């Protein structure tokens, strides 16, 4: 049985946002959990229960474009100003002054922006796998293209034909079968790319996820799934209904976000925690090297034997660390 609190709704920043809440409303500062792509508030189901049971107020929204939350049509409606503004509107709706923002994957990029753009509303920040970086020296899409080539998934997502959206949308179960698995444990010194059945080396090396999904067959995949059949059904049913365009539109704002962040001070001046996953091939622990320069009040914590979906692969460890850090820093 999947244990999730009842779905609630907030009118925020011009959209209706679905969210879940647990723990005592008197607890401050509350913890806001922000998911990544292609995920949902449901990705935090283990932490919602653990933090709520520990007496911590916890809130997990389906973010703009996802799940029970609205999916505006214009691509620009998914830029960083909108994504951070949605979370401020959620605090306003709940009459919360300040919160600790926790983000995984794309949610991590959003929560690291919160203290830069809305400092008065942020008590602390936790990145799960996603580190905080300074503003890139050039347009990130040009950087990705230079480093990984045109087949890298984020570069492909810029294509106005929306071909990747169609590939994922027509193979929803395949998408979650392929993504939501533990990585193959690799011997020390072995390269980070993991062989995935039916996918050529070039697709893996270029992070060509649409092609990987188009050619994927779960029957030949030796990796262990991290979702039960019941959990997978939640993702598959939701994305079958919503499609993937809302979430992919976040990626279509990389250039816009970069252009509009010129002049923004990238120093984070609140207590921060960086949770890293040992075997995340996309956001490896090394990606967090040197973060201390921008985030002076930083604690780092490594989750061993976990791939990219850390809060679902190692739920008890992630929950315990969040509870321990929250109590240590905020009482």
From TrEMBL:
InterPro entries linked to this entry: AB_hydrolase_1, AB_hydrolase_fold, Epox_hydrolase-like
Location of the AB hydrolase-1 domain: 29-315
Keyword Hydrolase: yes
Taxonomic superkingdom: Bacteria
GO molecular function, one term: hydrolase activity
Keyword annotations of the record: Hydrolase
Entry-linked Pfam families: Abhydrolase_1
Protein known as: Alpha/beta hydrolase
Protein species of origin: Bradyrhizobium jicamae
Taxonomic path: Bacteria, Pseudomonadati, Pseudomonadota, Alphaproteobacteria, Hyphomicrobiales
């Amino acid at each position: 049985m999947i244990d999730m609190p009842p779905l609630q709704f907030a009118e925020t920043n011009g959209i209706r946002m679905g969210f879940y809440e647990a723990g005592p409303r008197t607890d401050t500062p509350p913890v806001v959990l922000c998911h990544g792509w292609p995920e949902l508030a449901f990705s935090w189901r283990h932490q919602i229960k653990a933090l709520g049971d520990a007496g911590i107020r916890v809130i997990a929204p389906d973010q703009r474009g996802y799940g029970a939350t609205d999916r505006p049509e214009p691509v620009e409606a998914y830029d960083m100003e909108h994504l951070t503004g949605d979370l401020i509107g959620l605090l306003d709706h709940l009459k919360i002054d300040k919160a600790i923002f926790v983000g995984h994957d794309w949610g991590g990029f959003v929560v690291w922006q919160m203290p830069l753009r809305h400092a008065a509303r942020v008590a602390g920040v936790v990145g799960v796998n996603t580190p905080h970086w300074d503003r890139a020296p050039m347009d990130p899409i040009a950087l990705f293209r230079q480093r990984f080539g045109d087949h890298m998934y984020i570069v492909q997502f810029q294509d106005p034909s929306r071909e990747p959206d169609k590939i994922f949308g027509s193979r929803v179960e395949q998408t979650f079968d392929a993504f939501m698995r533990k990585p193959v444990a690799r011997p020390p010194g072995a390269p980070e790319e993991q062989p995935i059945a039916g996918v050529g080396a070039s697709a893996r090396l270029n992070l060509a996820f649409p092609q990987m999904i188009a050619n994927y067959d779960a029957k030949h995949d030796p990796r262990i799934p991290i979702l039960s059949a019941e959990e997978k059904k939640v993702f598959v049913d939701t994305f079958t209904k919503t499609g993937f365009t809302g979430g992919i539109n976040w990626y279509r704002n990389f250039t816009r976000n970069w252009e509009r962040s010129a002049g923004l001070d990238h120093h984070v001046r609140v207590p921060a925690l960086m949770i890293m996953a040992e075997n995340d091939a996309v956001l490896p622990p090394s990606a967090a090297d040197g973060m201390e320069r921008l985030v002076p009040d930083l604690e780092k914590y490594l989750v061993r034997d976990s791939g990219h979906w850390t809060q679902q692969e190692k739920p008890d460890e992630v929950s315990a660390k969040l509870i321990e850090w929250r109590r240590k820093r905020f009482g």
